[in-house]
Write a structure and sequence with these properties.
15 helices, mainly alpha, two-stranded parallel ribbon
């Protein structure tokens, strides 16, 4: 059985989805050096300050040149750095940035609010995703719909979810995915527990303050200023966020489960590691996604070591793709739309020719 892909071939195989795994969560934890579970506040802060220093430097360079010949490069670089900053806030949301909740929340807000992510709203829905990965009934992120649901979806919903997926994130914040209700901004959303309403309100108010700040900048300097220095990098950030999230959970040989056939570890293995080339270091090796889903409290700078430690135990259950990211994206883009209406251990299928 071969689940690892290479540049020339992608094998689609059955990873025995309806059987118990031949290893336990404890087996995997014992294989990982204990220091991998220990966050370093100093190291985490160093990554945070490095990212914001680069972002500030790029703004100074862009303002210095103020040239349309340079702006496209600036948009790509700055949008990528926005994405890197999001990954720092991602560690904060998992509590793997530091041992101090107040510091995690502070840096999480400082990382996420400028890029229009409501930190606590996102953190809580992301927690739901991690607690239910691979579960068709309860997962939160990039889960496939049933064939029946797919056939019932109006054309505009299919267009957004399946044909323009790389710009879906801002809409997802206001309106969750199919069959999921609630907004990331409303304290009364079914996403949140009553005890979390204060956190959600705090993040929503800060998000609103950022919108007001951007509005004031636009009033002072004009729409062109906003487009050049914020909107275009923001769009690149959104594309990165949607691309990476989509690719880590969408592949023809990744099974999805229903009912009692699902349990946490099996679901956590329904993800795949990707190689983003020289972007790996820039966005903090977010491609090491399998180990992250099994042990979400491992800081990003220990995930490569943890992955190396658990691969011998996971064996064929470890998924990795060295395909070019563009090839992987378009393959899944065309072929992974829905799953069978019934059963567990089901795989994504392509739409029929009569679909949108």
């Amino acid at each position: 059985m071969q689940l690892e892909t290479n540049l020339s071939k992608v094998d689609v195989v059955d990873p025995l989805p309806t059987t118990k795994l031949p290893f336990s969560l404890q087996d995997l934890k014992l294989a990982i050096p204990s220091h991998c579970f220990e966050p370093s506040t100093g190291k985490s802060l160093a990554y945070f300050f490095l990212d914001i220093t680069i972002i500030a430097g790029l703004y100074l360079i862009a303002a210095f040149f103020d040239s349309w010949l340079f702006f496209p490069f600036f948009w790509l670089m700055q949008g990528t750095m926005f994405w890197a900053l999001f990954v720092v806030g991602h560690d904060c949301g998992h509590g793997s940035f530091s041992r101090y909740k107040w510091l995690n929340d502070l840096i999480g807000h400082v990382s996420h609010t400028p890029i229009l992510v409501p930190y606590h709203g996102w953190r809580i829905s992301h927690r739901t995703h991690h607690a239910n990965t691979g579960n068709l009934d309860r997962d939160e992120s990039w889960y496939p719909v049933s064939e029946a649901k797919y056939e019932q979806m109006p054309w505009y919903e299919k267009l957004l979810r399946f044909y323009t997926p790389l710009i879906a994130y801002p809409i997802y914040l206001f309106k969750r995915s199919p069959d999921r209700e609630g907004s990331h901004f409303s304290p009364s959303s079914p996403l949140f527990r009553p005890s979390e309403k204060g956190d959600v309100l705090t993040s929503s108010v800060l998000w609103g303050a950022m919108i007001i700040f951007l509005g004031l900048l636009t009033y002072q300097f004009g729409w062109l200023f906003l487009i050049k220095y914020y909107l275009m990098p923001y769009i690149i950030f959104v594309v990165w966020l949607d691309l990476v999230t989509f690719l880590h959970h969408t592949e023809a040989d990744i099974p999805w489960y229903r009912g009692d056939d699902w349990y946490f570890l099996k679901g956590a293995l329904s993800t795949i590691d990707r190689d983003y080339g020289w972007f790996n270091a820039i966005h903090h090796h977010i491609g090491t996604h399998v180990a992250h889903h099994i042990f979400l409290n491992i800081p990003h700078y220990h995930l490569q070591e943890a992955t190396t430690a658990i691969k011998p135990i996971l064996g064929d259950y470890y998924r990795y793709s060295a395909e070019p990211i563009s090839k992987s994206f378009f393959k899944s883009y065309w072929n992974c739309h829905f799953v069978n209406n019934q059963g567990s251990g089901v795989y994504p299928q392509p739409p029929s020719s009569r679909s949108l």
